Amino acid sequence: MGMRWAVVETGDGGARLCPLDRDGRPAGPVLREPSLAEAVRSRPEVERWVWRSTAEIYRRLLAEVRVERCYDVEAAEALLIGHEEGQSGQPHSLAAAWARLHGRPVPQDAPVRTAQAQPSLFEPGSVPLPPGTDELTALLEVYAGHMARTERAEHPDRMRLLLAAESAGMLVATEMGRAGVPWRADVHRKLLDELLGERYPGGGEPRRMAELADEVSRAFGAGRRVRPDLPNDIIKAFARAGISLTSTRKWELQQIDHPAVAPLLEYKTLYRLYTAHGWAWLQQWVHDGRFRPEYLPGGTVSGRWTTNGGGALQIPKVIRRAVRADPGWRLVVADAAQMEPRVLAAVSRDRGLMELAGSGEDLYADLAARAFGGDRARAKLGLLGAIYGQTSGDALKHMADLRRRYPAAVAYVDEAARAGEEGRLVRTWMGRTCPPASVAPPDEAGLPQEEEPSPAYGTGSAAARARGRFTRNFVVQGSAADWALLLLAAVRRSLSEGGLRAELVFFQHDEVIVHCPAQEAETVAEAITAAAATAGRIAFGETPVRFPFTTAVVECYAEAK
User: Fold this and answer.
1) Are 322 and 188 in contact (CB under 8 A)?
2) What angle, rounded to 10 degrees, do the helices at 135-151 and 73-85 form?
3) What is the mean pLDDT of residues 494-521?
4) How distant is the alpha carbon of residue 319 from its chain centre?
5) How does DSSP classify residue 206?
6) Checking CA distances to 429, which of 21, 121, 150, 480 falls within 20 to 30 Å?
7) CA 387, CA 469: separation in Å to the nearest integer?
C-alpha cells in the first residue's frame, strides 16, 4: 500500500490532514495547511487521499489541482453496508458511518440537491456530525473501520478493488462534469425548429406537435378531443373504438390497426424530444459551448451511472448532431462490443463461452456460426435471453442448446435467479451486493423500455419471479459496471501519463467518449483498447476473454452511430 493521507476542510477555508499506516490509523501528527489545494499540491508523493466525499470536495479542488487517486469514504460506506448486511440504499454519509460505528442512531442522508446546470449558493450541505465531534477524528475512525470491515468481506481482495474502482469513478465523474461535452447550441436550435416547428406564444405546444395532436383526435371521430400526452386519454379512446390496451407503450401500439397509431407514435417521439431536450433544456444546460451534467457513479443498485438532471445518458440520436468537437479536435467514440455476454463468460468461468468470447470481434456472429445456423439475430436473442431471464418464445427454444453448450454460464445465472426468488442476496464478481428481498426489484436496464417484457423466470409468486429475474441480470450487469469503472480509471491514467490534452467527456455503461486534438485521436483509440484489456485482467484475472471496442474518430457524435 502506498502512502495515504486523510484530509478534511476547515471552516476558514484551510485543511487539516495526517498520514496513515497500513491499517488506516494515524502515522504522524495532524498538520494544518492554509488551503486544501495547497495541502494536495505540496505533497505529490501521496499515493491516495482519503476524504469524506469526492463529489463535494474534488469539485472545488479541481479548479486548482488534480488528484490521481482517492478513497471516498461515503461511496465506500454505501458498498460496505450493502455487502455486510444486505442493506443497499441505507444512509452512507460520514455522519451515518460514524454513528453506525459507535452504535448510535443513524441520521438520514441529506436530500439530493436540485438538479441544475449552474452551481447555487444554497445547495444543501453534508449531514453534520454530532456537536463536539471532530471531523478529522471521525474520518480516521471510519476509515480504519473500513479497512477492518474490508478484510472480513467474502473476497477481501475483490472488495478492496471495488472500493478503489468506485472512488476512481468518482474522480472521473467530477472531471467529466467540469470538462463538459462539446455542444453546438446553434445546431441544437436548428434541429428543434426543423423537427418541432415554430413555438406558439404562451408556452403552448410547438406547431408540429399541435398538428399531430389534432390528427390523433380526428382519427377517433369528429368532435372528440383526445390528449395524446395523457395515457389514460389514449387508453379510453381506444376502448371506445373497441380496442383494449394495457399501456401506451410503442410495442403495444404497433400491434394495432387504427388510423390514430401512426400520428400518436410520431407525437410520442416528438413529445419526448420537446420535454427532455427541447428549448428549455438547451437554455438550462448548455453554456459556453459545453453540456455539463452531474454524473452519479453507482446511481443504480447495479452500479450503473445516472445523472442528477440533464438526461445525459439518454441523448436522442437526432440531438447527437449537436455534439461536435471543437475546431481542430475530434471525438473518439468507443463502444464495448457485447460487453455483458463477455462478462458472463469471465465470471462464470465457462470454458466454452470464454473461448467464444476470446475468438473474435463479434461474439454473436461467432455464436451464430456454431449454434444458430448463422443467424446472428437469433444467437443474440438466445444469449441475452439467458442473461435477462427471457424464457418464452424463441428464447425458450434456444435455452436448452445454450445450457448444453455452455453449462457453467447458464448455471451461473440460473443460480442467481434461484437465490433471488428465495430471498437470498447475490453479489457481483467484485462484491457489489443487490438490495434485500424486502425492496422491490428496480426497473433497470434488463430490457429496453419500449420492448415487450417477457414472462418472469422461475416459479412461485409474481414478486419472487420478478426478484429472480432481477438478480439473474444483476450478477452480470453489475459485474459489467464494476469492470467499466476499472476501464475508466485505466483510460484516465493513460491520458494523464501520456501528457495528452485529451479529456474524458462522456460515459454510459458501454460507451466512452474522449475529446482530443485531431493528432491525438489515434493514440487515444489505442489507449482505450489497452485499458479494456487491463480492466479485464485486473477485474477477472487471466482469462481468454477479450473486451474489444468499436471505435470511431469523428467530428460529430451522430457520425459514430
Assistant:
1) yes
2) 40
3) 96
4) 20
5) P
6) 21
7) 9
